[in-house]
Every structure is written in structure tokens, then in C-alpha cells.
Amino acid sequence: MYPLISIWTILPGKEAEAIAALKAVALKVQAEEPNTLAYLVHTPDFTQYNLPIPPAGQVVFFEIYKDHDAFLYHLNGPAFTGFVKQYGDLFLNSNGAPYLTVEVMTLQSGFIRPGTV
Predict the structure, then answer these.
(1) How many CB atoms are located within 10 Å of the residue 11 CB?
(2) Which of these, 80, 53, 60, lies nearest to 7 by C-alpha position?
(3) What's the pTM value of the predicted model, to 2 decimals?
């Protein structure tokens, strides 16, 4: 298993378009990448108490891949590369690509209940 967290930033004024694109890419990943075991896209809920207060425009991806090769397929595959090509300009950029952070995780404990997402 290859879990990770990635954080992106939507540019101000681009929120609605970016959220629609994120929903579409998640469906595409689900349909086309069977070795992507979980692909969850979150934005902060500013109606709730958060500490620290997350930045506006933050997008947090929680992803689990079967293995490193499945992650590389996602990274270089048509769903993700097409998404970046078409919608990358909706996000904070660095050198022409979305600026992001990636943190590869090691599962210690926990679960995801089937049918809850």
C-alpha cells in the first residue's frame, strides 16, 4: 500500500471551476485507475472550528495506491496529466505547474468503512 497526502491551493476567484474539475478528475481516476484504492479530495470547512485556520483555497488530497508503481501510473497517466494540462492554471503555480506538497505516509493503524464515501 502507498498512501500519501498532497496539498494544493486554488487561486482566488477560481474556486467553483476548480471544485467542478476536481470532482470530474476524481470520477475519472475511479473509472480508469483500478490500482488507485482511495482518492479523496477535501477543502476546509470554514463553518467549523479549525486550528490552525487553514488557508483559503486549500485542497487536501488523501490518496492510497496499491503500490509505488500504481502511484507512478496515476502521476503519468491520462487522468492526472489531462487534469493538470486543462485545469492547472486554476491553482497556485510554480514554473508552469501546480505548486503542491506531497507527504508519503506509512499506515500504522485505522480503517475506511466500505460504502462511506
Answers:
(1) 14
(2) 60
(3) 0.92
Residue 90: closest CA among 3, 4, 10, 7: 10
Look at residues 98, 101, 114, 8 and name the one whose alpha carbon lies nearest to residue 58. Answer: 8
Question: From first to last of its 117 residues, what are the pLDDT tens digits of the chain?
Answer: 999 999 999 999 999 999 999 999 999 999 999 999 999 999 999 999 999 999 999 999 999 999 999 999 999 999 999 999 999 999 999 988 899 999 999 999 998 888 887
Cα angle for residues 36, 60, 10 (degrees, 5° grid)? 120
Tracing cell 463553518 back to the chain, one arrives at 47
From residue 18, give the alpha-carbon distance in Å to each of 8, 12, 69, 104, 115.
11, 10, 27, 24, 26
Strands 101-104 and 97-98, how do they pair? Answer: unpaired
